[in-house]
Design brief:
Elements (H helix, E strand, L loop, with lengths): L2 E8 L5 H17 L4 E8 L3 H16 L4 E2 L2 E3 L4 H10 L5 E4 L5 E2 L1 H12 L4 E12 L7 E7 L19 E3 H7 L10 H9 L5 E13 L10 H14 L10 H12 L8 H8 L3 H12 L3 H12 L6 H11 L2
Helix pairs in contact: 1-2, 1-4, 6-7, 7-8
């Protein structure tokens, strides 16, 4: 079974030295294990330096017989349009993705490849979140912690998306359909929501790699756009319990312009919750709470649970629980 590893790259010059070194070492390891991999960098609006670095990496991979790398240089498009493009230009039996600011673990990849070989068609992993933090005014230091695999097809809920290192069979992609290029951040989660009832899923209980938090990541940042997209995923599925406050004007525009797909009617009570009277005040309070330090959020939720303090985050969570 051959695997395509697709990298959608845009303005990633500062990450390329680390990415190139990690990918070359990875390619050497998996080729020694006898696994065929096509590396497909889809480089959006590339600078001259990016072209030079990617072409140099491709020559090293190809001349060393460590797989095959075929860069594509294109005008700028969305992340998920590039993913679809990569799959359209590959004949591999399976696929995965590699962001330039992350590092894949070769041993976990090989475990995922074996799972696909043995009959799974969707595989996901735990992953290691790496961030530089400053605590109590001390010097900054790098911390690493293991994030358990979040995807659970038995109960698809908010926060239940695929991790950054998932792998799948092309046959599943053919059955589910392409990634929705309207999404900018949560398109992999939206795709997974369509795969819930038809995939043969297997979790690999080891870290698929390092997800590096550096302040410019698209996902896992709690951005306003991510909140809107995750809402749309669950609105399409009628999972009203999973809705959370979002920027009302932007939420309504996204839903009406591309989210509803021209066929889904949003019940009035949920429209009122998302963009009716009081929605902006609710959203601003919710965002303030989300941006508080973790210890303060836990304290606020504990006090709200006892009825001693109001918390929009607690109200949203209870709203979901009441509708489960």
């Amino acid at each position: 079974m051959k695997i395509a590893l697709i990298s959608s790259l845009y303005r990633c010059e500062k990450h390329l030295p680390t990415f190139s070194a990690a990918l070359f070492g990875f390619a050497k390891r998996v080729s020694q294990a006898g696994v065929a991999v096509d590396y497909l960098p889809i480089v959006n609006d590339a600078s001259q330096s990016e072209r030079e670095q990617i072409d140099k990496l491709a020559r090293a991979i190809n001349s060393g017989c460590h797989g095959r790398m075929t860069p594509q240089y294109i005008p700028r498009e969305s992340l998920y349009a590039s993913w679809n493009r990569g799959l359209a230009n590959s004949d591999a039996d399976g696929f995965g993705f590699w962001n330039a600011d992350d590092t894949r673990a070769a041993d976990a990849f090989l475990a995922g490849w074996r799972a696909l070989q043995d009959g799974a068609d969707l595989v996901d992993f735990d992953f290691t979140r790496v961030a530089t933090v400053r605590r109590m005014g001390r010097f900054a230091r790098t911390e690493r912690w293991l994030v358990p695999c979040l995807y659970n097809p038995a109960r698809f809920s908010r926060g239940n998306g695929l991790g950054p290192f998932f792998m799948a069979r092309r046959s599943l992609y053919a059955a589910v359909g392409p990634f929705d290029a309207n999404f900018q951040i949560a398109g992999d989660t939206e795709w997974a929501s369509r795969a819930v009832h038809i995939s043969r899923f297997q979790r690999i209980p080891s870290s698929g790699g390092d997800f590096i938090v550096h302040g410019e990541n698209l996902s896992n940042t709690g951005s306003g756009r991510e909140d809107i997209e995750v809402n749309i995923i669950h609105m399409r599925r009628g999972n009203w319990r999973e809705l959370r406050p979002a920027d009302p004007a932007a939420m309504r525009a996204a839903w009406q312009l591309w989210g509803r797909q021209g066929q889904i009617e949003l019940p009035a009570e949920h429209a009122e919750y998302l963009w009716g009277a009081g929605a902006k005040t609710r959203w601003r309070a919710y965002r303030r709470e989300q941006r508080q330090p973790r210890w303060l959020r836990r304290l606020r939720l504990a006090l709200a649970a006892r009825g001693w303090l109001h918390s929009e985050e607690w109200v949203a969570a209870r709203r979901g629980a009441a509708r489960s």
